[in-house]
Structures are given as C-alpha cells and as structure tokens.
Design a protein that fits this description.
Blueprint: H1 12-19, E1 25-33, E2 38-45, E3 54-56, E4 74-81, E5 84-86, E6 88-92, E7 95-98, E8 105-112, E9 121-123, E10 127-130, H2 132-135, E11 138-139, E12 147-151, E13 163-166, E14 170-172, E15 179-183, H3 186-189, E16 194-197, E17 200-206, E18 209-216, H4 224-242, E19 253-261, E20 266-269, E21 273-279, H5 293-307, H6 334-351, H7 357-373, H8 382-387, H9 400-403, H10 409-425, H11 432-444, H12 447-451, H13 464-472, H14 477-483, H15 492-497, E22 501-505, E23 512-513, E24 516-521, E25 524-530, H16 535-539, E26 546-550, E27 553-554, H17 557-561, H18 565-568, E28 576-583, E29 586-593, E30 595-596, E31 602-606, H19 611-614, H20 618-629
Parallel strand pairs: 1-12, 18-19, 19-21
Antiparallel strand pairs: 1-2, 2-8, 3-7, 3-11, 4-5, 4-8, 6-7, 9-10, 10-16, 12-15, 13-16, 14-15, 17-18, 20-21, 22-31, 23-30, 24-25, 25-26, 26-27, 26-28, 28-29
Helix pairs in contact: 4-5, 4-20, 5-6, 6-7, 6-10, 6-20, 7-10, 11-13
This protein binds zinc ion (ZN).
Length: about 625
C-alpha cells in the first residue's frame, strides 16, 4: 500500500464511501483560533433521523476509566437544514436533539482545546492534538456507517509547514497531509487521535508493517535513530510474541505520537497508534549512548502502550466489547488488561535486548516495594480495584495508600506469580505466554472483523480460570481466590526461589521515620500521606498538615526534598519528639514516638549457586531475542 496514489480508492470501504452521493456522516475540523485554543467542527448528516436527530459526545475515553464529560468544552453549537436554522434541544449534559428536518442536517460547533494530556485535545500556535472523543459528536443510530473527516490546515501563514500524523486511513489526503480521512464507523473514528504541527518524524518497519514515530515539542539534539532502533526491537518482539508463526501484526500501520514537556508522563493506547507524553530529559541526546532511568521508563511506556494493541484493544473484557460512552463501563478484569500489560512491558524490554537482566530485576524489585508499601492492599483486591477504577484509582486522594491497591502494579505481580506458577507446575512446558496467545486466538485476532457485523466478543468476567486450564492444564482457581479476588500478598519470595532468584528485604531497621510521605508546599513541607498505624498517625498528624518544626527545629521545603532524612537523622527508634504543625492555620503541638523505617526495601538477584535452576526462566526471557534475529 506504500506506493498507492492517495486518491485512488483501494478497498471496499473506500468504494462504498465514494460510491455514495453524499457521505452519510461527514465532519470537517479546522483549528480556528490557535491563541484562543478553539477547534471549529462542522458535521453533516446526509439522512438525519426523521423524528429528530440525536447527537452526543462521549463522557469518557476508552483506556482512561473516568467520566470526564468532554461536552463541557463545547462552547457554542447550532444546526441548519437547507440553509435555515434548526432548533437544537439539549437533552442532558452531553446530548442534543435537532428538530425534525427533511434534508441533510448540518451541525456547527466549537470546542475549547486547552488540556495538555493524551486524553483530550490541545491547540496553540505550536501544534494541535485531538482525540475524536473530544471533538466528534456521535450521530445516534448511524454509528455503524462509514465516517469521513476533513482535517483542515489553520489559516495562519505560520502553519504552512504543518503536517498531520494519525493512523486514520487517508481518503483524499497524502500521507502526513491535511485532507480527507476515513473511518469504518464511529468506534474507529474516535480510536485514531490526530496530531498536527511541525513535528519531528522517523519511520521504520517492524515485521513488514510501517511504523511512524512522531515527536512534538522542542528537543535539541534528539537521537531519533536510537529511539527507533530500540522501539523497533520492542515492536518486533511483541508481534512475534502473539504470532510466533506468521509474525503478522494486527494493524496495517502504527503511529507513536509523543508530546514532549518539561514534566509529564503518560500514554493512551489505540488500535493502531498511541499518544504519549514524556519529559524532555527522558529522550536520548545524540552521541550519548548510556541508558538512564528516564529513557528506560520512556521505552517501558512505549512497550506498554504497544502491548495494548493486542491486550485491551483487541482482546477485551466483555464489558468493553460494546462501549457505552455515556457512563461508567464496569469490569473487574483491569488487573489482567492493565496489570498483565504492565508485566509484559518491562519483560519485553529485556526480551528484545533493550535492557539487561540486572536492570530488569531492579524494575521488578521497585514494583514489589511499591505494592508492599500501602496497607490499602490488605483491604481491596485487584478485582475490586478494577471495578472501582472510575471512582477510586482514577480519583485518588491523600488516603489512597491506606485504602486502595493499584491494579497496574499488583496486577503485574499477579502476572509474575502466575507465570512462575505455570512454569513450575508444568516443568517449564507452559507459561503465561501460552495464556496470552490463547486469549489472542480466542478473542483478539478477529475482533474488528467481527465488530463490523456486530459479533465481537470479549472475555467474560469469570472465564479466565477455565481459559488458563485449557491453555496450560493448570487449575488456578485457588490462586485467583487468594490473590485476585482476595487480598493476600503474592508468595514471590518462594516462587522466585524456585527459579534460582533471591528476593531479600534489605531495609535498615536503625533508620527512623514518622511514617509519612512529604511534599513541597511553597517554602513549607506538607504531609502528603500519613500511613495508617504509623508514628505520625498515632501522634495525631494528618495528611495536609504543614510541618513547622521537630523538637523546636524548623522544617522547610528542603526537608520535603530528602523525605525528612536530615531532620530525623539525629534521633533513634523509640525516641519521642515534639512536632509543631499547622492545620487550617491553627498551630498543633503533638508528641510522636519515632518508629523504625518499615518501608519495604526488597532486592532481587540471582542466587550464586543456583544458576542452573534459573535456566527454567532464562530461555523464555531470551526466546524472543532469538526469534528477532532469525
Ligand atoms: Zn495501560
């Protein structure tokens, strides 16, 4: 398809769209006011509902499980038919109904786009970015029709050199050009975000599929060649992971779109692209070959979002097979869709040879320590955390460490423990890889083909145990009861020992602590979290309190930077200190008995004498390196 003329219809869908006298649903979007951050959208509905066409904007974006009410950013909206104004009644916070009309209906509206995140839309003089969920009204009843969108260049002369990056297929546009793009239905339309501007671009092929890597924002001396070499290795490992025989990728092309900022981190997965946000300093500089934590975590992010191309964009929980975009969609399986993706993201870095085993073990230990840090893990299971993502994980507050567990991090440890269990019980013949491939074959591979006829299916809430048994012969019901639906800590020390690895707790019991996490608040030091049962909790301190002094010595923002290490260095475990703090501007004087720092500090390494046992895990870690070289 690489050499095809952009204007020649190539497939059935394009012929179908071009064959129609008028596109059934057609949008045009223009960056109307860069300084004011406004997109103008015109929507033409060729055959509106004779009873009065309903229109609505999604309340949330798939992949980010929180109701965000994107329609709040619609500034003004109007409708016309035959050039005459049509009454548009607002039905609820994100829906409208036009008065009945006998001919094509045109809706014109403006969207305020000033949220620099991967979830919404952003526009200024430097670039534009949007997700369809923020800008394209859903034409109720015509969601399955082909949708056409004309992406227009801003009128400003400075935007003459702007290009477009999106995985939306071109209809009448050159690759990277402004013009007309198409989507087979509304679900597809909102699953291909669009970036426009003077971005940096590099391309590569992974197992025959064209991949674009787009970087927006200024990054002096960025080493794009190094990035695409590393990302290509990760992509090829993942393609070969799911399709070891054919090495066929599930998409026709793929676009990584990265927004670079001073301080930010995140990504959102789509069926053929991902939108990423990262720190400028995380991206490598030309001629500096070392691997630092920032770049490693950026590659982990790329790996994570790419793995979602299979796990959640095609293998889906049944609750996501047909999204209801107007409200929360509940599933207790995010520990599998986000947690397993979090397990494989770093594992794919080591399998692709991007990082070494020692670095991988460090990342694992970091996750283990993070999960064991909060007492919330003893109260909420990862299944409950998944179900309540909408109101708890996505809406965290100062008490979250005491109340919830992350389905990402604990979910990734569930994956590790499950992987080791399956390997141990089958003498290395089966692993979690077999489970992922079974999920792929059963649910993922033909998801979008089935979706065209409304026959797509997702994984039912209680189906995973049977699927694992079928794929590996191992019954994991007890495992799931304890660690997924229950709140028990995963038996990682024991499981890892079986593979020649030592997980040892290296916390120093002589180090003293208040049992808090502190943060900078202007020139002050604020208690961000107070861990349940700790010295600060027992003394009567609360999250939000401004720490003023310990034993009469001032505490400032500088102490927030080192986590009070300096302020507490001269004391011993069991010693009582006087603490002064402000709450609602009122001075509190409290006494705290310092405790031993009980934050877990696990370290993971290979046991000296048992490297033979580790062989059981090692071939799988390196298996895909071999496939890649073959
Ligand atoms: Zn994710």
């Amino acid at each position: 398809m690489k050499n095809a003329s952009p204007n020649a219809p190539k497939n059935k869908l394009e012929q179908q769209i071009i064959g129609l006298k008028k596109d059934p649903v057609r949008y045009s979007i223009v960056p109307k006011d860069l300084a004011g951050h406004v997109f103008q959208i015109t929507l033409e509905v060729a055959q509106p509902d004779p009873a009065g066409q309903c229109l609505s904007l999604p309340a949330w974006i798939p992949g980010s499980y929180m109701v965000r009410d994107f329609a709040r950013n619609i500034i003004c909206i109007s409708a016309t038919c035959h050039g005459k104004q049509v009454v548009l009644n607002k039905i609820d916070k994100h829906s409208w109904q036009a008065a009945a009309c006998s001919a094509a209906l045109t809706i014109t509206y403006e969207v305020y786009a000033w949220d620099l995140s991967v979830r919404t839309a952003h526009l200024d003089q430097s670039h534009g970015f949007f997700n369809g969920t923020s800008v394209f009204l859903q034409v109720v009843g015509q969601e399955m029709s082909p949708h056409v969108v004309d992406i227009q260049r801003p009128a400003e002369p400075a935007c003459k050199s702007w290009r477009v990056a999106t995985s939306l297929p071109e209809l009448k546009a050159r690759r990277y050009g402004f013009g007309t793009y198409r989507a087979e239905n509304y679900d597809a339309l909102i699953d291909h975000p669009v970036e426009m501007g003077d971005f940096a671009l590099a391309s590569f092929e992974a197992h025959g599929v064209s991949h674009d890597f787009v970087v927006s924002g200024r990054v002096p001396n960025i080493d794009l060649d190094r990035i695409i070499a590393d990302v290509k290795a990760i992509c090829e490992s993942q393609i070969a992971f799911f399709e070891p025989g054919s090495k066929r990728a599930p998409m026709q092309r793929y676009v990584f779109m990265t927004m670079v900022v001073g301080d930010g981190y995140g990504g959102l997965e789509h069926r053929a692209s991902t939108a990423l946000i990262c720190n400028r300093n995380d991206l490598p500089v030309k001629h500096q070959a070392e691997m630092n934590d920032g770049y490693r975590s950026f590659l982990g992010l790329c790996s994570h979002e790419y793995f979602h191309t299979w796990n959640v964009k095609r293998i889906k929980p049944a609750a996501f097979a047909h999204y209801d975009l107007s409200r929360e969609n509940y599933t207790s399986l995010l520990w599998l869709f986000e947690g397993f993706t979090s397990y494989y993201d770093d594992l794919m870095l080591v399998r692709s040879g991007t990082i070494d085993e020692a670095a991988y073990f460090k990342l694992l230990a970091k996750t283990i320590n993070g999960v064991l840090r909060g007492s919330g893990r003893t109260k909420q299971s990862v299944a409950e955390s998944s179900f309540d993502a909408w109101t708890k994980y996505y809406r965290q507050d100062e008490n979250s460490p005491n109340a919830i567990v992350s389905y990402y991090t604990k979910g990734s440890l569930v994956a590790l423990a499950l992987d080791l269990t399956l390997r141990a019980e089958t003498a290395g013949k089966k692993s979690l890889d077999d489970v992922m491939r079974a999920l792929w074959q059963q649910y993922g591979r033909d998801f979008y083909q089935k979706a065209l006829t409304g026959q797509q299916q997702g994984l039912a809430e209680n189906e995973i145990v049977a699927l694992i048994t079928e794929a590996t012969g191992v019954n994991t019901k007890r495992f799931m009861d304890k660690y997924v639906r229950g709140t028990e800590d995963l038996p990682l020390t024991k499981l890892l020992a079986g593979f020649g690895m030592v997980l040892s707790d290296e916390r120093k019991t002589t180090k003293v602590a208040l049992g808090v996490r502190v943060s900078k608040d202007g020139a002050d030091c604020k208690l961000a979290n107070v861990y349940e049962g700790c010295a600060a909790h027992q003394a009567g301190l609360s999250a939000g309190d401004i720490l003023i002094a310990i034993n009469g010595l001032r505490v400032t923002a500088a102490d927030a930077a080192d986590g009070l290490a300096n302020a507490l260095a001269r004391y011993t475990v069991g010693e009582a200190v006087q603490v002064h703090a402000f709450r609602r501007d009122e001075l509190l004087t409290l006494s705290a008995t310092l405790q031993a720092d009980d934050m877990p500090a696990y370290n993971l390494k290979l046991a000296e004498k048992s490297k033979a046992a580790f062989v059981a895990l090692r071939p799988s870690l390196l298996a895909f390196k071999k496939i890649r070289k073959a």
